[in-house]
Amino acid sequence: MKWPTVYVVATGPHSGATADEMTRMRATVTNATDANDLVTVFATIPANHVRVLTRAPDTVAEAIDQVAKSA
């Protein structure tokens, strides 16, 4: 990636994936941050990915603000 990117990572289960599948998917975030200095994890939220906006709207807004300021 050639632009700043931040992840808000959810730690909860997903109704359409096994725990192993979710672990592998979350590991790709680590791969992305290791491979590119422009990719970071802003926060980890104790919710599933469908509820991140509901459970942590302020965190998501802060992550967006961080990207906007760094662009």
Descriptive report:
With 71 residues, this protein is of the alpha+beta class. The chain has one domain (5-70). It is built from three helices and two strands; from the N terminus they run E-H-E-H-H. It has a two-stranded parallel sheet. Strand 1 (5-10), helix 1 (19-35) and strand 2 (39-45) form a beta-alpha-beta unit. The radius of gyration is 13 Å and the shape is flat.
What's the short version?
With 71 residues, this protein is α+β, with helices and mostly antiparallel strands. It contains 3 helices and 2 strands.
Write the SSE topology:
Elements: E1 5-10, H1 19-35, E2 39-45, H2 52-55, H3 57-70
Parallel strand pairs: 1-2
Count of all domains: 1
> Main beta sheet: strand number and arrangement?
2 strands, parallel
Report the β-strand fraction as a percent range. 15-25%
Helix content: 40-55%
Structural class: alpha+beta
The residue ranges in which pLDDT falls below 50 over 5 or more consecutive positions are none
What are the defining features of this structure?
single chain, 71 residues, alpha+beta, two-stranded parallel ribbon, 3 helices, 2 strands, 49% helix, 18% strand
